[in-house]
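User: quick one, sequence for these tokens?
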């Protein structure tokens, strides 16, 4: 049985045009592609969502939620590059995950879209720690949604010097590390897809 091509959905947890994480997520995606993954890179600004409000949901689910739910459905996992805001993940990231987790059009919980899928996470920050604390919070949030977060993670500090432009990380060991996160996510997603395919054949 040929190994299936894993599909990963990648995004940065920032809207700022000069965001270091919007630059870094391209490096992460390159690592996954080099290991055979098909990566869809999206900008969250193209899928604007209101701050989660149960009254908004009751009045009618925003169209952007359904689009993002479908994107997660079509992929085997996530690649996320997140900033650190006051020791945690940005509201943008939490709000996006919260909306996706809401019930789908067929009534099923949106959390089922995440169950047993893969995630690879990195961060970047102008400070020396590179947003490391945000990775701790993000790892926990993704795991609670049912994703399997690969053990590898990289925090890129001093990002102003190390990430001069989109997709460029000048520190070679860090670049290899970020590529390694993407590669680990691709390998695990592929292994899980192969197991699912084998189970379907056996059934």
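Assistant:
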């Amino acid at each position: 049985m040929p190994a299936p091509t894993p599909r990963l959905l990648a995004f940065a947890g920032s809207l700022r045009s000069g965001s270091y994480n919007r630059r870094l997520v391209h490096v992460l995606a390159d690592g996954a592609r080099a290991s055979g993954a098909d990566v869809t890179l999206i900008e969250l600004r193209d899928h604007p969502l209101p701050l989660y409000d149960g009254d908004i949901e009751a009045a009618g689910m925003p169209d952007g939620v359904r689009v993002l739910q479908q994107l997660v459905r079509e992929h085997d996992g996530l690649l996320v590059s997140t900033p650190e805001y006051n020791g945690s993940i940005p509201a943008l990231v939490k709000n996006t995950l919260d909306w996706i987790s809401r019930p789908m059009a067929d009534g099923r919980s949106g959390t089922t879209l995440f169950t047993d899928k893969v995630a690879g996470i990195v961060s970047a920050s102008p400070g020396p720690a590179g947003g490391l604390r945000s990775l701790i919070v993000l790892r926990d949030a993704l795991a609670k949604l049912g994703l399997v977060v690969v053990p590898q993670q990289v925090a890129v500090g001093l990002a102003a010097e190390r990430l001069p432009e989109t997709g460029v990380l000048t520190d070679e060991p860090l670049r290899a590390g970020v590529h390694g996160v993407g590669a680990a996510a691709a390998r695990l997603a592929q292994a899980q897809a192969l197991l699912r395919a084998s189970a379907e054949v056996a059934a």
